[in-house]
Amino acid sequence: MGLPVFDRERLRVFVDSPVFHRAVIAVIALNGIALGLETSHELADRHATAFLVIDRVILGVFVIEIILRIVVHGKAFFRDPWSWFDLIIVGMALVPASESVSILRLFRFLRVLRLISVVPGMRRVVSALFTAIPGLASAVVLLLLSLYTASVIGEQLFHEVAPQYFGDLGQSLFTMFTVLTVENGPQVAGDVMAKEPLAWIFFATFIVITAFFVLNLLIGVIVSAMEAEVNAQRWKEDQELELKQHTAVMDEIRALSERVDRLAAALPVAVSTRPAGADARDAAPADRTTGGEAPQPE
């Protein structure tokens, strides 16, 4: 038996309110803090019962929240990918875990990821990353191609002078990857340049191509996707605002039309549309005939 329409509307307002969202965010943050404290074996052993109670209460809150959202939004809940994300995260936490399947207990830590679906800013970032995947794929392939080419060239040039870095293709790939991160690049380049002074040309060219061009290309693709996501969100908000304004204007016009109809119905019977004075002219011959004979023509 479903809820009455009025009660469901009140429940929808409550579930979609900022207060409800802030409360869910606070519970997720509390869950993250509790899971972090539980990693301390001393605290976990000393307060095992308290951690268990907190975990069950938080899980119960999440289950109630999911149920309320399903009741309020109905089928629309299952059309939202983020709702499926929340449902899967909470569902995995409900899977019973024993010592033989202790890996399932790790699913509890995934509940912290629900913060992504609850906070709109994080949700836009993740959506933008998924939107940017086609463009990112091309840039990543270009980066891997540059890395592989530089690794092969480095193995051919420096496998004898620096076998610890370029002894084989695998070591060369790892070395060039560390150079790409610009963390160990100066040390690797310095060790190689001690025996090959012109090796700086190779490392400088690789860093310029990868770190300055390709990586900036990746950043540009991500920023473009973020801008598109933000613009899409703004367009959606503008459309919703325009729809609300249109609905308000139409409601006002409808109310004015009803008032006009009520005023028209309250007026007396409409007066004849005949010209003024027509009744007097029609009655004049009758009055003259009642007082005597009709006038004779001259």
From TrEMBL:
The chain crosses the membrane at residues 20-37, 49-72, 84-104, 125-148, 200-226. Keywords: Ion channel, Ion transport, Membrane, Transmembrane, Transmembrane helix, Transport. It is a multi-pass membrane protein. It comes from the Bacteria. Residues 18-228 form the Ion transport domain. Pfam families: Ion_trans. Signal peptide: none annotated. Residues 272-298 are annotated as: Disordered. InterPro entries: Ion_trans_dom, VGCC_Ca_Na, Volt_channel_dom_sf. SUPFAM superfamilies: Voltage-gated potassium channels. It is found in: Membrane. GO terms for cellular component: voltage-gated sodium channel complex. One of its GO terms (molecular function) is voltage-gated sodium channel activity. This is Voltage-gated sodium channel. It comes from Microbispora rosea. The lineage of its organism: Bacteria, Bacillati, Actinomycetota, Actinomycetes, Streptosporangiales.
